[in-house]
Amino acid sequence: MQLRWDNQFQFAGYYAAVWQGYYAEAGLDVEIRTVRAADGDLLSVTEEVAAGRATFGIGGADVLLARDQGSPLVILASVFPSSLVAFYTRADSFIHTPRQMVGTRVLRRPNDLTDIQFRAVLQLEGLGLADVVTVEQGASGIERLQSGAVDVVLGYRMTAPFLADQLGMDLIEIRPETYGVDFYGDSLFTHADTVRLRPAMVDRFREASLAGWRYALQNPEAIARRIATELEPGPLVEDALAFNRFQATRVTAMLGEEGQSLGHVNRERWARMQAKLFQLGLVASDELAPAAFYTEQDSIERLLDWWRQLTLWGGVGAALLLLAAAIAYVRLLRRHVRRQAELLALSRWQLALTVDAAREGLFEWWLDTDRVGCRWGRLADTPQLETETETDDLATFLAKLHPADRPAVATALADLASAGGGYAEVEFRLGHGDAAPWFLLRCGMPPEASGRPAVFGVVLEITRRKRAEQKLERLAMQDPLTGLANRRCFDDALARALAKAARQERRVALALLDLDGFKPINDRFGHEVGDAVLQETARRLEAAVRTEDLVARLGGDEFAVLLEEMSHTAMTLWTERLLAALREPMHVDEHHVRIDASIGWTLFPDDAERGRDLMRHADAALYRAKAKAAGASRAVAVRILEGGPPALVPAAGDERR
Description:
Distance between the termini: 79 Å
Low-confidence stretches: 297-303, 629-657
Number of strands: 22
Radius of gyration: 32 Å
């Protein structure tokens, strides 16, 4: 058994299968190997299994890459339903999204599991490797992130947060699935020859491994302690017990104590992974062959194969006994099928009964007749809907939805139909206008057991949740006092604007503005007047920019403005007009308040190409402006002097009194 990393709780199920005797009970003698060879080099799990040096391995997207290179590897069971990959930045950085990584230094190992998902996220965000600066993987990535040698590290959620905590460093964790890259995590695989020649052994190994995982999930502390005390830890881990307890917490949170979905293989998800690898140019085909998945060979066919072999060997008596066993097994199978059909009918009756009592609706779409039935049930905030089933064709059903939501629903249903199976979730509004109620459709396409392909699902009323989410989203991106964008919103907008300007070869101006003499206003007139001054300043700033520009309040009396397609001359004129507008007296609660301001600004790409550098330049310019005498134009530009280091150069009119 070849692991993909060092001894740790990430592989607890396989250790438990050894320690609890599950492999031994299955007649198997299993040796578990870590990823490190005797000489210290890191082994390739797929190469070890493909070459026959290991019988089983743990992999993910690398299995698909190996298959594309001609290695007939077979996926046996998916243990982790989601990828362990994440991208990490320092908590004190401005990098919270992939778009904010433009121009940053990224520590990556080309084409490994973390890098594949990183490239997929960049592609979905309209970016590419050319938008970041690649730093080759070397020493501990978290240590290099702490030292400032890199800005982004591609790592694993089972390891990186623990190592960062050891160093006393806080991280920002960016997960691929948040941006639509939903890859499987650790999955058990083997060679096609092993499945063909030793199918019974493969069955026993698979079941014993899953039994080991169930034991480990129910006894995480005991297994974590044994791993820490009995197995050699990795070189980066100082406290093996604390590390394995950390992983145990994360694994049980992901799988649950019972691990009920252990081993389930969703072929559609694997097919989507193959298609994504094809889009990235990493594999030659966007289709994944059925041979990539393990299916227990039909017992009757297996018995017939044995019967043929025994006949060739002359064991007619044994063959007849085996054939009789096969017939008995068929009868048992038929009895089992009848029982399952009865249970299915009972489940359908229970579901129909539950719908009337619960605030849920039922959805069905029959592909052969294009008929859509929707039994809305007693939905919480929409009592006007009929509880009886409404029957339409798909086009009529879609016409009842909000125009902005129709494409998403139509695409989700079409994808299910074209794939012939799978699962989908999609949100939509029923009706038109902002007050239309929100619903969540969860649906899937089961196997065509009845010969009639159909999509079935449930409809949940989520209006209150959506209203709350929209309110929270506005609050998260908006300054509550002025209604302007806040720092988080401004950071996102800056990253997007720089990426767009780089593609279109255009300029972007960044201006920082700070009110002069604001504290005395607060002290003399009170905070209510101070708040009113900030609100009026915000109004004047918004009046001074175009619709495509952005004004933000960064905190206190500091504001930021992002202006697209601005030249040096245009910015100089704009700052002069803005300062004049800000100097106009403000009438607040019968008080006449006169305020002044300082402005520092800079240009992309003339002065810098990264957002953090532009902010630093603009801040330096603002500091220079505030140091000047009161009454002067405060506009100061940061320019890059040809052949020399960055320097502050006054904008036109800077010395005017």
